[in-house]
Task: structure prediction
Amino acid sequence: MEKVRYEIDPFNRLVVTGAGKGLPRQRAVLDGVFKTADDNTLIYHVKSPASEPGTAPHQVKLRGQWSLGKDHNLRFTLDKVARSAGSDSLELAGDIIDVRGNALLFSMTTRRSDGSRTTYVLELLGVWQADKNNRLTFRVRREKSRYDILTFEGAWGIDSDSELIYRYEKSRLVRTTKTVHEIVFKGQWRVGPGSIVSYALDASSDSAFNFKTSAGICGDNFIKYELGVMLGSRLRPTRRTVTLFGTWNIARRTGLSFEVRCANGKTYTINMGAEARITKRDTIALKLKDINTRKDLGLQLELSHALLEGDGAAFLTFLRSREEAAVFVGAGFRW
Result:
């Protein structure tokens, strides 16, 4: 059985060398575009061959594994049955232009043999998660519940709208310059037990970054976590701070909540339970709990008179009338 060698030329075209069923017998550059199947298999749709007219197939289906390559290009490593010496991976050059709850969109430009250019988008389907080192990853869905993992080694942070952002540098051949790319993840923050702070993407997807942190700190208008991210070959983790700004509320219907400020004056709510008690300063000391399981969130908060209005002021009056040292406040609690 003769081996077939696959390469990508500088113009994002598939290059085939060798003999195979329906393939040219000598090195051929094929004009076409890449697509992905439902299981994220890579397919090259041939428009017309740049050499040996009439000998190329309509499409070439490739099997392998996805990863993140140099300069945040997409790398496709061929399965062993499709490899020959020196042709084990294909590097697709382009830019990550968008991310969704269950997808990564990658823009590519291909130049055909007649000099014309085609720009199109390659879509990979999968799940966004954080790994054990608090790095961002995209698990590319494959057949039989398998996944290929794209690991993002660059820096992530939070912008002024409380959105998760990822920045990376990309080299350009022209004048050997570098450009900075920014990916914005649209989602909402959540706090959980076990010193976990989460950023959930589209509600219709399973994508969420669950970051391991140290104990958080609460203030009059913020929740703050410190965590470490192990990037690349560094021996020590890079420090990251997650700070959410907003407003605390106590309501009869929902219990304790934190209203997060985000873009265009919009807000969303993080609902929590709490073990509450009155202090000697006549304020409310709260030990925050998961609203469903009542597990400890590792967060403590003290609310003063100035922050208590409406139901909050009523709850303070209620605490003053109780003989117990502490009362649990949660959704549906009545006082």
About this structure: Residues 189-335 form one domain. The chain has a mean pLDDT of 87.
